[in-house]
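Database export, one record per block. Field names are fixed; values are copied verbatim from the stored entry.
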Amino acid sequence: MPTWEQLVRDHHALAFRVARSVLRDDASAEDAVQDLYLRFLRDPAALERAANLKAFVARAAVNAALDQKRSAGRREKRERAATREEAVMDPVEQAARAELRAKVAELPDEQRLAVEMHYFHGLTKEETAAALDVPAGTVSSRLNAALGRLRTALAAAAFAGLLAMLESELAKCGAEEAVPAGLKGRLLGLRQAPGSAATGAARPSVRLPVAAIAGGALLALLLAVAARKAFWDAEGSGERPGASGEAADTGGSRTEAPAPPAVAETPAPPPATETEERVETILEGFLFRRDGGVFVCNVTAWDHMPKQTMWNPAAERLRAWNESLTIARGLEGLPAADAANFGAFLLKGAPASSAPQSRVRLKVRAPRLPDASEPEDPMRMETPRFAPQPAELVEVLDSEVLGEAWLGAWREMHAAMADLWAAWRMEPGAEKRSAMLAAATRLGTAWELARAARRGDRKAAWRVQRESEAVSGALDKLAPVGLDGLLPPWPTPDELHAVLMDSASPAALRSAVTGRWGEEALALDAWCYRSTGPGAWSWSSVSLSAAAAMSDAAFATLHEELEGIPNNRREAPAGSAMEERRRGERARVAAFGLELADLAALDRERFLIECGAIVRAVTPDSPAGRLGLQAGDILWKTVSTWEGKGGRTTGDVPIWGEFGLATSLQDGGDPAECLLGLKVLRGGETLELRFAR
């Protein structure tokens, strides 16, 4: 146990700052700290019971401050004997810090206390949790919510520097908080002669008459009856008893347990019945509001676009049930959107407030999914509908607020990608090159803005993944034509798959990913085939961060599974059957009258094409010669007709090398019935050569 001098020297500043965080008043905080140290004098054994002395002092300071706050007769504030020395700093920096402290002061109490203890007073998250008597996960949730609110407030006020270094600036704000100069001396003076504090000399005891004791007991009984009635009234109104703070014994004193997140005033769904079975469920997705509260829906970035998916009745039923689970009140610091997707925001210029913003992972307690009233029919393809079901929030496991700045940059990335696809559809030439350069530059600028909007945020996996979808898709188009250097290095899906398959251990995977693309790339998924049963597999994702955190044994098991699926392995050297097939295709092209070669990288970059084959020689009086082909031509696309669901269709089909053309030619060298002509690049111009019919 520390000596009294050590206790004062090491912890008086922490105790004062914690008390001031609760009371918002210097003089009252000094009184609370003095009361706290008097308690330590009377009961020094409490210090011996502390597993973590720093956390114990902080927790006891919270209790003392709350006792001071609740006391009916607060002592008059006294004038300070010593003036504080103001820190000397740049006036602009001083104003910025003052603004940040003001924004922290506007936070809800539970978030503000977590921020001040963790950042201002230097407590770890575990010590903060002990001081506030809440789980460490709750502290993390409160800090995340607080940082989200601060980012929004600072972004609105255009404090770009503070926004970029928010957490380090918070710690500096805490270091600026001064401690009264005379406090340490007064605390050291509290200790009187040995045993005087223990005998209660600091505060004389008072003996109460028997009548007073009896009157107090009667009053306590009446208060208990009133509290019991209030309890049942709260039960009848659907309120959870103790929601505003249940008493908890902390640090040798009684204090109020922290209240749950503040909530919007909305009518709650009907409470569950006593006989209803309730289970804990994990909900993951974006936060939306409905009459009666908020719910979670796992919309994606592409839910506004038509797509084809395999219908799974059981999965659809579970999804609909999870979306019916309604938390009666909103979550503090996490904005909920109207039930919608990203379409209006990305495509129609709707404000960022209309887009989903709060991506969460929640643990809730809710009714169990009821059994289906009738057997599931996979051909029916109807999503069931459930009325809103009441759910109780147990814990916020994770949260990520996208923020309007990031959403705006992400929309700009989508617009740049649209420009890039439009440029890609242009015919090769100088105009196409200019359009692609402009689109790639616009994308790179928007990407940098998106990265800046989330810089310093350790929980940004969803945003990194969405940025990656756009950038890796652009690289797929830019790399074949030699323009991928316009964007910073970033992995394509094929490269992520390759690095996962080539890594022999978790450490090697982490080193390969971070060495090539940086730490952010660990937030991505590598897509590969995963086993779904004996001899069966499907396209699935593997989290790179999860794989890099595996034990060597678990990673070896994962690799054994992946390598056991042929579709995950690189294509094996061509066997005899493949060689025979290619000889036949080559003979088909030769009978058509052509000798072809694959395009070189220089050809692709010069003409801005990703597909094609270059003509080396043309056989006179062959179908190719009669069509008008010449040596040096680049075969770009075939003009073909094929049968589809809508009937007979004509369109362009890219030629991927010699074997791409062979698929449109029949044995014997004559053009197939479906081949109408060829699109050719000659001297930088596009020609279309048609067969005479």
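Remark 1: Residues 302 and 342 are 8 Å apart (CA to CA).
Remark 2: The chain has a mean pLDDT of 75.
End of record.
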